[in-house]
């Protein structure tokens, strides 16, 4: 009986074998974490420009933020940018789609006026389909009326931003 149990144990281990943990990971190629990641250090990058209700124009404060983005892009000619416009839930879907795209285009044109080549800028509009919050409050919905600025590498994949210290962030302003 002991021989039969031992034989059964070895047989079951032999049949099941050992599984490599590599078999459970997919190969994402260049998109895999830690591979071909562009890192930009020590510069301030404005990630969002918000808009007032039903507007697509930039005020002076927004222009100053975009000036910082333009400066970083000009200093790093291999970097690119995606400008993604959005709207809140007010209005019809078709109108929000046009408004969101118009916001992205306004930001892109401003960056071009500051010296960033148009071939380095991608514009998209998401309408009201990608809200940060869901609210009927006009004031709270300001976060949904925005353009997102996504810094891209030469391969048009998102770039990782790393700040050396708080001092380098404040001195970039």
Describe this structure in words.
The chain has helices at 2-16, 60-75, 93-113, 166-171; strands at residues 39-41, 48-50, 80-85, 121-125, 146-152, 160-162. With 173 residues, the chain is an alpha/beta fold. It has a domain at 48-162: OmpA-like domain (60s Ribosomal Protein L30, Chain: A). The strands form two sheets. It has a four-stranded mixed sheet with strand order 2-5-3-4. Strands 1-6 form a two-stranded parallel sheet. α3 (93-113) links the parallel β3 (80-85) and β4. α2 (60-75) packs across α3. The radius of gyration is 25 Å and the shape is globular. The model is unreliable at 16-31 and 165-173 (pLDDT under 50).
Strand order of the largest sheet: 2-5-3-4
User: For the record, what CATH class of the domain at 48-162 applies?
Assistant: Alpha Beta
* Beta strand count: 6
* Structural category: alpha/beta
Per DSSP, the total helix count is 4
Helix content: 25-40%
Give the integer mean of the pLDDT values.
Answer: 80
Radius of gyration, in angstroms, nearest whole number: 25 Å
CATH architecture of the domain at 48-162: 2-Layer Sandwich
**What low-confidence regions span 5 or more consecutive residues with pLDDT below 50?**
16-31, 165-173
**What overall form do the CA principal axes indicate?**
globular
- What is the N-to-C order of secondary-structure elements (H for helix, E for strand)? HEEHEHEEEH
For this structure, what is the CATH homologous superfamily of the domain at 48-162?
Answer: OmpA-like domain
Task: Give a quick account of the main beta sheet: strands, pairing sense, barrel closure.
Answer: 4 strands, mixed
* C-alpha termini separation: 80 Å
Find the CATH topology of the domain at 48-162.
60s Ribosomal Protein L30, Chain: A
- Percentage beta strand: 15-25%
Keywords: Cell outer membrane, Lipoprotein, Membrane
Protein name: OmpA family protein
Subcellular location: Cell outer membrane
Organism: Photobacterium toruni
């Amino acid at each position: 009986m002991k021989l039969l149990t031992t034989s059964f144990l070895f047989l079951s281990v032999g049949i099941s074998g050992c599984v490599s943990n590599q078999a459970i990971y997919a190969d994402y190629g260049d998109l895999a974490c830690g591979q071909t990641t562009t890192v930009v250090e020590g510069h301030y990058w404005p990630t969002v420009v918000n808009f007032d209700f039903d507007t697509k124009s930039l005020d002076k404060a927004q222009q100053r933020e975009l000036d910082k983005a333009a400066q970083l892009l000009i200093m790093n000619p291999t970097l690119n940018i995606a400008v993604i416009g959005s709207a809140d839930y007010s209005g019809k879907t078709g109108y929000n789609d046009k408004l969101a795209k118009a916001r992205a285009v306004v930001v892109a044109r401003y960056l071009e006026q500051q010296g960033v080549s148009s071939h380095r800028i991608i514009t998209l509009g998401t309408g009201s389909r990608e809200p940060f919050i869901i609210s009927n409050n006009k004031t709270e919905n300001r976060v949904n009326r925005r353009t997102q600025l996504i810094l891209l590498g030469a391969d048009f994949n998102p770039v990782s931003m790393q700040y050396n210290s708080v001092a380098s962030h404040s001195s970039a302003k």
